[in-house]
Amino acid sequence: MSDERHIDEPGDGLTPTPSEERLERLLAQMPRRQCPGRVRENVMARLSRETTIADAPGPAPPPARTISLWFRRNTAFFLEAAALLAVGVGGAKVYLDHRAEFAFRPSQRDTVRALDEAAKAEAPEKYVGESMRRIGRGEEGEPSRSLDAPTLEDDFDRGEPREKRAAPMPGRPVGPAGSPEAVPVEAPTADFTEVNGDAAVELDVKTGREGGHRPSATPTPAPLAPPTATPAPSAPAPALRPAAESIAADRSATRQKGTESGAAVHYRRAVNGLAGQPAEPQKAVAAVEERGAPAEGELEKKAATAPAVQSAETEGLGVSPRSDSKASDARLGVGQGQAAGKPVPETAPVKALPEAAEPAPSALLPPLQPAAPQEPEVRLQIEPQQQARDAAYESSNLYMYYGGSWSDREAPSTAPVNLYFLEVVTSPSRQWALAAQNRIDQVQPALGEEEGRRRGDLQDSWGRFASNGITAFNTLANNFGGQVTSAQEVVVEPGSRPAVAVEVRLPGENRDALLNAAHQKRLVAVVPKGAPAAQDGATDRYRSDAPAREPFGQPLARAGLGSGLGRIGEADLARTPVETFANFYAQNAPMEQAGALVSRAQPTRAVEGIRQQAKEAAAQTTSALRARASSPAGATGGRAVRGRPFVAGGDQVVSGALAGGYAFGEPHAPMLTTGTARLYFILEPDPLPQP
Amino acid sequence: MYQMEKTAVVNRIECGEEQEWIERARAGDLAAFDQLIRRHQDQVYSVAYRMLGNEDDAADVAQDVFLACFRHLHSYRGASKFSTWLHRIAVNTVKNLWSRRKRQKQNQTDSLDTPETPDDCAPIELLTDPAPNPRQLAAGGELMALLEKRLLELEPSFREVIVLRFIEGMSYEEIAEMTEEPLGTIKSRIFRARRLLSELMKDYLEEA
Description:
heterodimer; A: alpha+beta; 2 domains; 6-stranded antiparallel beta sheet; two-stranded antiparallel sheet; B: mainly alpha; Rna Polymerase Sigma Factor, Chain: A; Arc Repressor Mutant, subunit A
């Protein structure tokens, strides 16, 4: 033992005092303590446990069991961020749904001006006459042309024949406003009530009946058309008032009811009008007929053509969102008429706007198209979910089935040589959809097969899963230079579904790698769709020793795994046509637990078939290895090479899964004892998440 | 002269032997690591004991040091002596223990064995005979036992440099490398620690 004490250096540069020198001497004389022997023994014992063959579970818990402290500390932040994100997404969705309602629309004045100009260009005499009539109304000192009073557009909307408008109507005062002729005509209230079906309208009609011209405190608005013509006193403008009141009542009633939004109506009217759909006009016609309107043919013609023209001209150019505007009244009237069965806003004056005045359909479309109705899309989303849920439920039932003689359920399988393990890293909802989509065709039957066939497959389902799962896991172990040496059907918990406990022997240095790859992982072993069976005549692409190609190549490289084994995500699964071979949840079982599970295994469900397969596989493997060793090219000498399957591609069929063939927990052969690790995994059928 | 040459040759042989053990232990040879433990266990244990003042704690620390040494043997590149590297692990392990105990001290109940303050005697010492126990007598007498006690009263950083410098006999450079602190800091710290300890031991040193 070296004792290198050199305290005779110059030190800190300061000469120590005599007492300090004595102290230094005393300290140097302090005896070195003898280390107790138990320290070395404990260290060696512990190191021996860690470095020898890993029969015991690893000292450190697997990383999947632990939650990092950092994550714990930031849980609150994550929750807040998630909540904010959810609120943001919800808000965005609501905004997108109602975006059209907030859209910009041109003002009412612009709309009316454009309407007037169009009318003036086509029928100047008519326009002048109407304008003069309106202006004359104002000049004659009409006490109020309230916001609810009829305008030129309201006259159009009325859609009534000129002769009917000119005739005295019940409830309409006769004669100019303020004149002695302005006497209200007694109107049968029930008539309007029957049509409108609305208390507000009824009240309004009563008001009109009682008061006739209602004085209003609001100032008279500016005329919508420039007063370029002389007044036309002959126009019976006050006669339109009850109709305008009726429209206003309709509007207020609709506001109370909160029916269809303006944008939706805007869109629907334009589209329906262009497409010639008579849905709303038919309602209008029906309502007018109910009222006993005279000219049905004319009304039908108007109804079929006018809404498109009127709504497009009015709204394609844009309508102000002002609630008191007349154009808005006309626009809102569609929804109201639809809701309350009133046809008034839907009917447009054909004569006032002749056919030639219709603009091109492209010009009629509103500048901002609201989103298409969402109902069909929602339905499309729901249907696959329901299908997936049903499939998942059925799959779960199929998985749950077990019982009866094992040998009866033993089913041969011809698995292709390339097995890819897809670690499905996705959300649970996506997982069950994915699992339901990629049902295990080898394990469970197709849904549309015959009942008898289904029953047979039901009985085979568990056996097929077991053999496929062991085969797949053996392929996984092969990539780590190991092999499945034994398997046993176990029941993880009393009363639960059966699982398969497999014993894997592999080189000790690959033990952790296999644990990382397989422990607590949901693994889906798939075969490429259309892959040929494991035969000598297989194509190069699907040979077992062929390198993995896209899209498996990159995930393979990322995972650091060899060929024939992939760990890919759902994106790869989605774009790659594959057939699921077996999917299971692998979990490392400590020795004690594995032993306890095996002791709980029921003898009736012992995996006799698997053992038999193991023995056959052992014989095949031995013969293959001997043949390879005897051949000049037999370079591996019977040792498994990492990244390559243990057996050549042509030999690797399902029966080659259990190359060792030892019984569960039995002492193994001497050639496997040195430097090998023994791991136990429990392979459970992947329980599909409950929908 | 002959003796010095002989010692150097022995040292070279020992170094070569130790290097071989290190290589073998790095490859997983537990027997070689056992040899390394046998060679350095007393040094490690002694450092831990002088810094902690407790045999059980020192044994635990030594055990942890050797386990950590084996697990991180691949990171030893031979830039410094193996013993220096081992001492560094030991010092860090002791420091970790100190900091751990410092955190746990708030929840700790009063112990009859440990004093709460440097000037405070442990309660059990008030009840027992203040005379040195047979182990202290066997270890070097009353003065040595008193020196051990006063050493434990020093601040951990002072205790550390006193142990490494005067008891283990390491050079300033080795201590600086081990504690990862500048050489000047180590020198001044040793100076102050020595002066403080001599003041604590003033009466006894003058008598001696």
